[in-house]
Specification:
683 residues; alpha/beta; eight-stranded parallel barrel; 19 helices; 22 strands; 14% strand; globular; disordered N terminus
Length: 683
């Protein structure tokens, strides 16, 4: 690390605010002392250690990226390739050149590559191209055509179907739909006096009769907006026909910012971003919160809970309407304003996309289309395979043609309609394995990753998804939430990988919570901390973080609250002398976040409010807390009040980001830890 960088941070943190139990003599930082690195760390230094810019010794091994063979790369990524799946059997796979141990599982890799190539070729044969296939929203759902509205819905289990809504008094007898050989129902609804028969913002539903003769009403699967009557308790959502006139459509004004050297992510939840106990709006977030994010030096915003979800306390992870932006915070046009405002500030925007499962809701969710039919005719698997017992949610059948169309189109929709710059895929571990990671400990043994437990259907879907995303948006950033550490997850599809750009380093926050709960300061091991922070695969990039939304959910608390607890209620004023608990807490809060950023990955993430040490925890309104929003907001006044000590943690967070902006240590290719000092607790 350049001397100027080290001096800047050492003056701030290793000096006046270093707690006595850790300091001894913080000035004794040596970049040449022997660190007694363990066998585990020695192996990782060559393969994956990357320190915060410390100069590498001349003996350090320099790694070059292994290029995939042209033939295998061609068949995996070239849409015009003439190679067949048989060629996979005789070609080397790029991943093997980076990790020869993977060759023992060559049959597994060849099988999944063959499945990927075959699926991609079938799509290209029958749909024109993967990109065209992923424009299902132009065919399904409601689409305005010249002189009529076309509505199409895939529901092979339905015996009869009709469209109902405000426009026909909820009587579908004059709007019966026709079914084709693929189970797709359709209807053309002619204009009335030159105007659309279904007015903009009017409610609509899909009514169908299934095998037992019952008629049921469901929100259309491809609906682009859904709302609920706020005056009715636990009211079901209604689908809304969204087709604003040109004068009301938001027009994007600013280009997407370029892909930064290193990704510094600000994880945010629009609904809980207000300082008041209420749900915040897209426009308020854009005007009030985005400038804070930019000022602190982040270059990327990751938005949670964008896809519509009827249960607010699910944090957005039990999606009910995949193509609809959550109406709690505003309209689709309001969300576009937010994203455009972010782009104007130089901020890229990622979306939490949930394709690992869906809400179990029947009346307002995709699950309502399951009426006991076979998996072939459903979005989901049948029986136990179609149900996640811990999440109480439904699981997709990724081998189904229409499921692939639905999910791939969903990705393209958010990129092209809303100008998102990429995604954070939720629940990837659950997708990768038939056991979904339940009651499973991953030790790093390769047999855990490549066996009959691997869900190859889901792997193929994610390969298709990543290929599609980077084809239509080459600068996209795609992050996988995976705790297993599957090899090849973050290698390009052309190498035989799954194609993500980053994996969340999920073990890091767990390590910090373990230390904060169970260890005295003097028992903290720099060797163990360093090994945990650097335990990642070479050439597979990670997003490091000390805490995200997960660490603050009710039952746990933020890092700052772990460190200072009740002292945060009464001793954060600069007008009084700080007690040792607060001095220690602020110093360790800084050091925990900085060493995580410095050693933990090639990108960094922080959750909204934790940059200034937000106290307490997150608790969404629910019956158990009297439907209170008190713990479901962000107390911005804490950092804005000049005489409170929160400003020190916020200033340090900004200094960290600006340091990387100037010296690019997150993106540095230097990969060695040159000093670990247990006595001085310096690494």
């Amino acid at each position: 690390m350049p001397t100027a960088c080290w001096n800047l941070l050492s003056q701030t943190a290793l000096g006046a605010l270093m707690p006595s139990s850790l300091s001894k003599d913080a000035s004794k930082v040596s970049t040449s002392s022997r660190c007694g690195i363990s066998k585990c760390q020695t192996r990782l230094i060559i393969g994956s250690f990357r320190a915060a810019g410390f100069p590498s010794p001349k003996s350090c091994v320099k790694h070059e990226r292994v290029q995939p063979t042209s033939a295998i790369s061609d068949i995996l990524t070239n849409d015009n390739s003439t190679m067949s799946t048989a060629d996979v059997e005789t070609e080397n796979i790029g991943l093997f050149g980076m990790d020869s141990a993977l060759e023992s599982y060559k049959d597994h890799f060849r099988y999944r590559i063959m499945r990927y190539v075959e699926q991609k070729k079938l799509i290209e044969t029958y749909e024109g191209s993967l990109e065209e296939f992923a424009q299902g929203y132009l065919k399904f759902g409601f689409n305005r055509e010249k002189g009529y509205i076309l509505y199409q819905e895939w529901a092979p289990a339905a015996q009869e179907a009709e469209v109902i809504g405000d426009f026909n008094g909820w009587d579908g007898s004059n709007h019966r739909m026709e079914k084709n050989q693929f189970g797709v129902w359709s209807i053309k609804i002619p204009d009335c006096n030159g105007n659309p028969a279904i007015p903009h913002k009017s409610r609509v539903k899909f009514r169908f009769k299934h095998g037992n003769g019952d008629w049921i009403d469901r929100i259309p699967a491809w609906i682009k907006y859904a709302t609920v009557d706020p005056g009715k308790f636990a009211a079901p959502y209604d689908g809304v026909y969204w087709d604003p006139p040109p004068s009301e459509r938001y027009q994007f004004k600013y280009p997407r910012p370029p892909n930064p050297k290193s990704t510094r992510i600000y994880e945010a939840h629009v609904g809980m971003s207000s300082s008041e106990p209420r749900i915040n709006s897209y426009q308020e977030f854009a005007d009030d919160v985005l400038p804070r994010i930019q000022a602190n030096g982040y270059n990327t915003v990751q938005l949670m809970a964008v896809m519509e979800h009827s249960y607010y306390a699910s944090f957005g992870y039990h999606v009910t309407n995949f193509f609809a932006a959550s109406s709690r915070s505003g309209t689709p046009e309001d969300l576009k304003y937010l994203i455009d405002k972010a782009h104007s500030l130089g901020l890229r925007v990622l979306m939490d996309v949930v394709h690992s499962h869906t809400s179990n809701n029947i009346t307002d969710g995709l699950n309502g289309f399951d009426v006991g039919q076979s998996s072939q005719d459903s979005y989901f698997h049948t029986g136990e395979r179609g149900y996640h017992k811990l999440w109480d949610s439904r699981l997709f059948n990724y081998a189904n043609w229409e499921v692939l169309r639905f999910l791939l189109s969903n990705l393209r929709w958010w990129i092209e309609e809303f100008n998102f710059d990429g995604f954070r895929f939720d629940g990837v571990t659950s997708m990768l394995y038939h056991h979904h990671g339940i009651n499973t400990t991953f030790t790093g043994n390769y047999n855990e990753y490549f066996s009959e437990a691997t869900d190859v259907d889901a792997v193929v879907y994610m390969m298709l998804a990543n290929h599609l995303i980077h084809k239509i948006l080459p600068d996209a950033t795609v992050v996988a939430e995976d705790v297993s550490g599957m090899p090849g997850l973050c290698r390009p599809v052309s190498d035989g990988g799954i194609g993500f750009d980053y994996r969340l380093a999920m073990a890091i926050p767990d390590k910090w919570i373990d230390y904060l709960k169970n260890k005295k300061d003097e028992d903290w091991s720099m060797k163990e901390i360093t090994c945990s922070l650097t335990n990642r695969r070479y050439t597979e990039k990670c997003i490091a973080y000390a805490e995200s939304h997960d660490q603050a959910i009710v039952g746990d608390k933020t890092v700052a609250f772990f460190l200072m607890d009740k002292e945060m209620y009464s001793n954060m004023s600069c007008l009084t002398e700080a007690p040792p608990e607060v001095e220690r807490g602020i110093a360790l809060h800084k050091m925990i976040h900085f060493i995580t950023m410095a050693l933990g990955g090639e990108g960094y993430l922080n959750f909204m409010g934790n940059e200034f040490g937000h106290p307490e925890w997150i608790d969404f309104p629910r019956e158990g807390n009297g439907w209170s929003y008190e713990k479901c907001r962000r107390q911005w006044d804490l950092v804005d009040t000049d005489h409170l000590r929160y400003k020190f943690m916020n200033a340090f967070d900004k200094a960290m980001n600006l340091l990387d902006e100037e010296f690019s240590f997150l993106a540095s290719s230097k990969q060695i830890v040159s000093s670990i000092n247990e006595e001085d607790k310096v690494g």
